[in-house]
Amino acid sequence: MVRGTFTSDRPLLISLLIAAIAVLTVIWQILDAVVLAASLAVVIFPLYRIISARSRPGAGAALTCLLVLVAVILFLAFAVSVFLDNRSYIEELIGTVFTWVESAQSASVLSQLSIEQDQAVLFLKSTRDVFSRYVTSLAGQLLFIGFKVVLFFTLLFLFLYKGEVLIQGISRGVPPHATTTWEELKKTGVDTLYAIYVVQGIIVVITFVLALPFFLVLGYGHVLFLATASGIMKLNPVIGPSVIMLVLGIQALSIGDTRGLLLLIFIGYPVVCALPDLLLRPILMGRRTAIHPAIMWVGYFGGILTMGFIGFILGPLILALVARGYPTLIREIRRGSAGEGESSTGAKDDEDRSEPYCADEPSGPP
Prior knowledge:
Helix content: over 70%
Low-confidence stretches: 354-366
Radius of gyration: 30 Å
Number of strands: 0
Distance between the termini: 52 Å
Oligomer: single chain
Order of helices and strands: HHHHHHHHHHHHHHH
Structural class: mainly alpha
Strand content: under 5%
Number of helices: 15
């Protein structure tokens, strides 16, 4: 009887919910490290299996973490070198933006857009100040950032080394009637995490491939740098390469390049910035998880807007689990209701058969 079983499990579910809220409250400041470590451990677990097959499990987990660390260091070194090698060009672009906004030429253009020049200048300066304060705050939080990095790799090691034991322990605690739901949710979670990380890498490559011919046609030079920077900035789910298009658009206005401005507005932003995120990402993620792309799209952007950086993982994951788990739960409840109906009908038939047949007796004396 599934319905009765779910009702009896209600205190347990409420207790688990309260415990989850308490845990989230405690680890909220380090939640990003926990989520990244747990999700990445799921994705690279096949690599850990291959490595641990030729060594001890602990050594395999340590070696897998070392490979991740080397990959992160190499990527950061590459990204930093790309921006440092083009530092003069970046400074030139930023200087062009400030010079044009403060010039008399921009006043007429901004007035047509219902933007006052003083407000535009104030916005640029405040943005520069916010960015400077952000960099300064990062420098002041180096100790905390270092702690998060150490915590991330420690958790990654533990999730790889003891992840199977943890999942088996959770599986043993799942009631028998919820085993099917648990297995489907587990598979959906793994597929969704694979989709998030793998599709993110694919999107970065697609952005780079789309940006190369566009910046070549745009004709502003530094094609390889702009395409590479667009791909790297695509890793930032909030800003992305849109800031590059904005800066280049202001440069096109400052030099009176109408052709370049139109290319940036009608081809650059829609194709390089919007197309990979709005169309390709939900389709690719939905294909892996067998969930409608619209749900994945809402989960991705809704997660980012509500939870920030870790929302691009938790948003699609939560919606995918709900979309997959709700029909399964309803199906099991209906199956239990049908079973209850059959059981009660059978019991009533048995009771009717057990009663002897008695004809109506006349009232009164014979």
